[in-house]
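Record type: monomer structure entry
Structure origin: computed from sequence
Chain ID: A
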Amino acid sequence: MMKSKRYNIRNLEELHAMVCSLKAENELQGEALAKDTKAYLKQFTFGSLIKKYATPSAFLKIDDKLNISSSVMSLVLPLLMNSTLFRGSGIITKALVGLASGKVGKALDAEHLSAIFNSVKSWFGKKKKHEKGEGYVDYGIPPDSETY
């Protein structure tokens, strides 16, 4: 709780002056509080939270603790397999595919998924040209030439 302050006010003019100064002080403190609050809340905007916490290492750390990716894959992979590759198959085939892909999905974690993603991405990436080493300089003279 706040302690009350004692003021030496002897007449009505001093009282009005003190009231005006307290109102001005209240306004300044209110503006400072509003400014500080805006600055404090800016650090919790959606964009800043994503920049701070949505990094690949943070996702891997969370996934190591909770195994979110393996749980999601164990649910999604059987649905995906049965709805695409085994669409016209019978119920026994779908059940077997569901069990097998569920087990495979549980075995996959974030590191395996990122490795799979990177390998697929490398298939579609640009081909790098292999240039000759930096130590090799072509002077235009054939190596079997009799000029040396």
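Annotation 1: DSSP finds six helices and no strands in the chain.
Annotation 2: Residues 86 and 94 are 7 Å apart (CA to CA).
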